[in-house]
Amino acid sequence: EVADWMSVNAGAVHGTTPVDADVARPAEEPWVRWTGSGSTAHAIIDADGTVALRAVPEALDLAAARLTDGSPVPARTDGHAVEVELPAGPTRPVVVNIPLTTRTA
After folding, report:
1. Mean pLDDT throughout 35-63?
2. Closest CA to 53 of 17, 28, 88, 16
3. Mean pLDDT throughout 42-54?
4. 20 to 30 A Cα–Cα from 81, which one of 92, 98, 99, 100?
5. 83: β partners
6. What is the DSSP string of 23-54?
7. Which residues pair with 27 in a beta bridge?
8. How far apart are CA 68 and CA 102, in angstroms?
9. Contacts of 14 (CB under 8 A, 6+ apart)
10. Residue 95: band (very low, low, confident or very high) from pLDDT cuts 50, 70, 90
11. Exposed, middle or buried by CB within 10 Å (0-12, 13-18, 19+), for 69?
């Protein structure tokens, strides 16, 4: 299962660095980790449905949030956090790719 997951999501792991804590922070419930490559933040999320992320909305281009396959992910500001709608499915964690805004890139 790990090999199958990596074959799709390796871009969120290999050649990345942690996203600056001023942009987004990891969480345990639900389990979320953030990596970055170039001008993209990768939220690696072990959940489905509506998930609140500890992230600065202004630092991320929420309208451009996408799954690894390019499918759009509804993302919106929720106070001082970000809320995303993740699809239900057997493959988790889910990777959501969100461009950084020019403010942070």
Report:
1. 95
2. 28
3. 95
4. 92
5. 52, 76
6. TB--EETTEEEEEEETTEEEEEEE--EEEEE-
7. 32
8. 22
9. none
10. very high
11. exposed
